[in-house]
Specification:
Strands 4-3-5 form a three-stranded mixed beta sheet. Strands 1-2 form a two-stranded antiparallel sheet. By secondary structure, the chain is mainly alpha-helical. It is built from eleven helices and five strands. It is globular and about 65 Å long. A hairpin with a 2-residue loop joins strand 1 and strand 2. It starts with a helix and ends with a helix.
């Protein structure tokens, strides 16, 4: 509430007073003939995202053998993806079916605040997961000592705190800009690039802060992940048994795929000058990292995960035992 009260709804420019109460979302305006088809696709993706990530949370909580740092971070990632996709996808589906494709000023502020929060947390969380993999493979004998409960809890808390600070800084700066009457956003949801383009004020400070914060939230974690995997690959190549190498590679492969998908699209969207933005192309990128990637996470992480399959068998046995005792 305090944050919302700081954002001016009245923007004065050239002696005129413009009161902005809502934004019009134009992202789906050119899809009149296939809007129901896209609604069905987004609905299926959203349900798969919710189901897959809830499944990961429940399975890793039920089986005590999965009470490890790796699955602690995976639970955080699954919960994050549920929140992340819920920020945008339901609103996108509403706009696909409704004639008035608008979002209130306060709703746009809240959506941007939440979206940037989850974007920042995921960037940092993926780096924390890479560090966990590095310790597990490069320093296996000291893993339980180094990656103790205090450390991995602090890492997770730091990720959520960093994401929140990232969100507050960008949201405050974005909605202190003047919007001079034009309230049409050529995008699927409220995000920094289309709002900066829509503004009639000087966006130099916003772009500068976006690039500076992007170094700490985007590039620094990404380079940390790359460095971790250089050490990991070097350690794996020194493993003599092919079975050991395969197990180590399978542990990291799923995480690496998600990193490439997520960081590639996020850095492309945020860490570049505003003059290079092309909203027609950027809309497709935004769908990739905000809609598709959260759905792929549970699929990629569970497809070849032996621990998850064992946990499923355990859950199945418990359910069967329960039915025998309570028919």
């Amino acid at each position: 509430v305090l944050l919302l009260s700081q954002f001016p709804r009245e923007n004065i420019m050239e002696g005129e007073n413009h009161t902005l109460s809502e934004f019009i979302i134009l992202g789906f305006s050119d899809l009149n003939n296939v809007q129901f088809l896209f609604f069905t696709i987004f609905l299926m993706i959203y349900l798969c995202t919710l189901g897959g990530n809830i499944f990961i949370i429940l399975v890793t909580l039920i089986d005590i053998r999965l009470y490890t740092p790796m699955y602690f971070f995976l639970r955080n990632l699954a919960f994050l993806d549920i929140c992340y996709t819920t920020t945008n996808v339901p609103q996108m589906m509403v706009h696909l079916l409704s004639k008035k494709k608008s979002i209130s000023y306060g709703g746009c502020v809240a959506q941007l605040l939440a979206f940037l929060f989850f974007v920042g947390v995921e960037c940092l969380l993926l780096a924390a997961m890479a560090y966990d993999h590095y310790i597990a493979i490069c320093k296996p004998l000291r893993y339980s000592v180094i990656m103790n409960k205090i450390l991995y809890s602090q890492l997770a808390a730091s990720c959520w705190t960093g994401g929140f600070l990232n969100s507050v800084v960008h949201t405050v700066l974005t909605f202190r800009l003047p919007f001079c009457g034009n309230n049409e956003i050529n995008y699927f949801f409220c995000d920094i690039p289309p709002l900066l383009i829509l503004s009639c004020g000087d966006t130099f400070v916003n772009e500068l802060v976006l690039l500076i914060v992007g170094v700490f939230i985007g590039w620094a974690p990404f380079l940390g992940i790359i460095l971790s995997y250089l050490y990991i690959i070097s350690a794996i190549l020194r493993i003599r048994s092919s079975e050991g190498r395969q197990k180590a590679f399978s542990t990291c492969a799923s995480h690496l795929v998600i990193v490439l998908l997520y960081y590639g699209s996020s850095i492309f969207t945020y860490v570049r000058p505003i003059s290079s933005y092309s909203l027609a192309k950027d809309r497709l990128i935004s769908v990739l990292y905000s809609v598709v990637t959260p759905m792929l996470n549970p699929i990629i992480y569970t497809l070849r995960n032996k621990d998850i399959r064992k946990a499923l068998r355990t859950v199945g046995e418990k359910v069967a035992t329960f039915k025998l005792h309570f028919p």
